[in-house]
Amino acid sequence: MPYIVGLTGGIGSGKSTIGGLFSALGVPVVDADIIARQVVEKGSPLLAELCSHFGTDVLTEQGELNRAKLREIIFSHPNEKTWLNQLLHPAIRNEMLAQVEQCQQPYVILMVPLLIENNLPHLCDRILVVDVQPETQIERAIKRDNNKLEIIQNIMASQVSREKRLSYADDIIDNNQPLEKNLGKIKKQINELHKIYLKKAEEKQCQN
Ligand code: ATP
């Protein structure tokens, strides 16, 4: 198993942006959001289970998962949310680990937005948090998704606080400054972290 660096941060903090910079260095990035979609893709056994539990209402005409419909159901039925999480979380975790294991490089970035909320820090050898102030999160998330303030605030309220997230961090990337001013500094920090992670990965290999 490669050395696993968990990359996390709140909504709109810049995880994908930072993940992309690691990727540019040739580091594999396993993205929990992509896996969460893959495990329920059209024709998958899990989508069939969702269908037999919730009915074909949760399918689009094309036979894909109707996420808006599913969100609507679990929003008004908390028990259904628990059922859904119990079905999906183990599948997502197993698939994340399977994809990590397939990577040939010494270390992997495991990008998981809800790493702390879903009690997954133990999967990682080290945790890297992308940190921004809540006001900046709101501003960037609204701009990116054209979303309402209330929706972003609700999502933020469902995530752990900035303080709690930072308490799990081995490393922190401060992404508060606009990228056009700060890209050079961030790339420099990522290069430094890259060297540290390569060294840690080598140490892990030696121990095994
Ligand atoms: P989510 O968890 O909500 O998917 P994320 O943490 O992956 O978000 P990104 O998608 O990387 O965050 O960034 C959110 C938005 O903010 C994007 O539109 C991105 O281009 C922009 N962004 C990221 N970092 C900066 C920055 N330092 N300055 C300005 N804009 C930024």
From TrEMBL:
Gene: coaE
The name this protein goes by in its record: Dephospho-CoA kinase
Keywords: ATP-binding, Coenzyme A biosynthesis, Cytoplasm, Kinase, Nucleotide-binding, Transferase
Taxon lineage: Bacteria, Pseudomonadati, Pseudomonadota, Gammaproteobacteria, Pasteurellales
Pathway assigned in UniProt: Cofactor biosynthesis; coenzyme A biosynthesis; CoA from (R)-pantothenate: step 5/5
Example of a GO biological process term: coenzyme A biosynthetic process
First-level EC class: transferase
Compartment(s) where it occurs, according to its Swiss-Prot or TrEMBL record: Cytoplasm
Main subcellular location: cytoplasm
